[in-house]
């Protein structure tokens, strides 16, 4: 009998990040691993984040407040 790991839910937010049920480990193209222990992790889909692979809301339009 094989035990299958529980599936992780990934939600793609139009114009925003991918939300992944955590904790997660993300393997980057250079072979390093980024880890987050949060219960939901926002992964950057636009590559504008200074915290890539994690989202820092850089995808949001800049607006000035009066």
Main sheet: strands, sense, barrel: 3 strands, antiparallel
Strand percentage: 25-35%
Low-confidence stretches: none
Number of helices, where a helix is a run of at least 4 consecutive DSSP H or I residues: 0
Give the rounded overall mean pLDDT: 86
Strand and helix order: EEEEE
In helices, the fraction of residues equals under 10%
- Tell me the domain tally: 1
In total, the number of strands is 5
Spatial shape:
elongated
Structural class: mainly beta
Report the C-alpha radius of gyration, rounded.
15 Å
End-to-end CA span? 63 Å
- Strands of the largest sheet, in order across it? 1-2-5
Protein name: CDGSH-type Zn-finger protein
Pfam families: zf-CDGSH
Organism: Amycolatopsis magusensis
Keywords: 2Fe-2S, Iron, Iron-sulfur, Metal-binding
Describe this structure in words.
The chain is mainly β and 66 residues long. The protein is built from no helices and five strands. The strands form two sheets. Strands 1-2-5 form a three-stranded antiparallel beta sheet, with no helix packed on it. A two-stranded antiparallel ribbon has the order 3-4. The mean pLDDT is 86.
Summarize, please:
This protein is an all-beta fold and 66 residues long. The protein has no helices and 5 strands.
Defining traits:
66 residues, mainly beta, 3-stranded antiparallel β-sheet, two-stranded antiparallel ribbon, 5 strands
Write the layout of secondary structure elements.
Elements: E1 10-12, E2 18-21, E3 24-27, E4 33-36, E5 40-43
